[in-house]
Amino acid sequence: MKENNSPSFGICLFIVISLLVIMGASLGFLGIPVHIAMSISMAVAIAALLYSGVKWDFIISSIEDGGKMAITTVLILFIIGMVMGSWMASGTVPAIIYWGLKLINPKIFLVTACLVCCVVSISTGSSWSTGGTIGVALIAVGEGLGINPAITAGAIVSGAYFGDKMSPLSDTTNLSPAIAEGDLFDHIKSMLYTTTPSLIIALILYGIIGAKYSSDTLDVSSINTTLEVIKQTFNLNFLVWIPPILVIILAIKKVPALISLLFSAIIAALIAVFVQGETISSITTIMDTGFASNVGIASVDKLLSRGGLQNMAYTVTLTLIVMPYGAILEKTQVLSVLLEKFKVLTKSVGSLVTSTVLTAIGLNIVTSSQYMSLVLTGRMYLQAYKDKDMLPQTLSRTLEDSATMTSPLVPWNLCALFFAGALGVPTISYLPYAFLNWISPLVAIIFAWLGLFQWKTGAIYSNKTYRPIDAKEGIADN
């Protein structure tokens, strides 16, 4: 019986392949609920580890560690549900919907939604805060304009992750250079070289898609009805804008997301009571089960009925399965055994960056956690980047281009679970439209093989003396 010894490579490979097969089959054609499919995958992994000689007590300890890591995430998810309900009842989301429908041209709505989320997420440093607040309102605005929610969700996710990647307030933006042993602001500067062209391409695509929506294709009468109902149902004075402003201010002050979101929910609840006429009993019920519109117009009721702590249960329960599963694979060294095999794929700069990107994406799929993906990938390739005399920001940037950006594209990853739950759009539906998130890793790989922006010690960059790798050197062995 083993506790500290690693399982064999064959056992580790079997565990990962079984996960991919089970999850792929369940999502593709068997129709097995994702909770059950993930539970089956965990059972298969545990059985394989027990067969290989890993002690049951050690597996249980790993599960407990995963549960501890999940607690903060679960609390944030529940609070987001409360925020969504209280923001709706306070008139905050209805006000955003009202002015969005009045002022935003449908042709540029997707571009606007992406850019707004970029600004908010840079200000807050949190893709989750952006998606769970402004994102929810933008989904509703898009629905009012007759735009497919999946496309709107893709634009929201793209914008939210631009800021999550570029903001010095973001946890992943700070974690990545720490793993790569680099400087935070050198890291942010280096990301501009891959993220900026990726964002430009994404905005162009949103502009092309949005061009088919015009005033001529809109149901103007439906929009006017929605505007009239919102105006009659809610008091849209300046007080309703306090909750989102509070979130941004607290984020800039580096107040933890859990605290800032909770305060925002409480302030919104008070506004709902003193401005919108809710009672203490009704607003607490709304925060628990969600805001339910009953104006009698189906389209408006669907648009305004959102939020609630209880409505986050689907996402929370899946989180409580995937986090222990990822912890099992990490603690029993399944991931270490597999990752060791990838170290041979680092002969050139192009192959090194490609291997880094693919490893990070693979770990997002297997561990369901962008943090595990960042840390494990960074630890694995750090020495390889040092051996090639490459600057730390080349590794930290690549970690963000891959691990951070693809985390909301894996249906059972925590980030994807959050956005699917908050926006009410399945990951598989918005995935094709989250352009920035899948363009960014492609740009990272292409630039690496072309030898673009891959710095070695010795050209002028960030007021230091470094030598850039030329195109030939970027492809050849170093």
TrEMBL record:
The lineage's top-level taxon is Bacteria
> Which keywords describe this protein according to UniProt?
Antiport, Cell membrane, Membrane, Transmembrane, Transmembrane helix, Transport
Its signal peptide is none
Transmembrane stretches in the record are 9-30, 36-54, 75-101, 107-124, 136-162, 191-213, 234-252, 258-277, 312-329, 349-366, 409-429, 435-455
Chief place of localization: membrane
The record, for InterPro entries, names: Na/H_antiport_NhaC, Na/H_Antiport_NhaC-like_C, NhaC_Na-H+_Antiporter
* Subcellular location(s) per record: Cell membrane
Limits of the Na+/H+ antiporter NhaC-like C-terminal domain: 159-452
Q: What topology does it adopt in the membrane?
A: Multi-pass membrane protein
Pfam families membership: Na_H_antiporter
Family under the similarity heading: Belongs to the NhaC Na(+)/H(+) (TC 2.A.35) antiporter family.
| Entry protein name | Na+/H+ antiporter NhaC
User: Organism, per UniProt?
Assistant: Lutispora saccharofermentans
Higher taxonomy: Bacteria, Bacillati, Bacillota, Clostridia, Lutisporales
Which gene does this sequence derive from?
A: nhaC
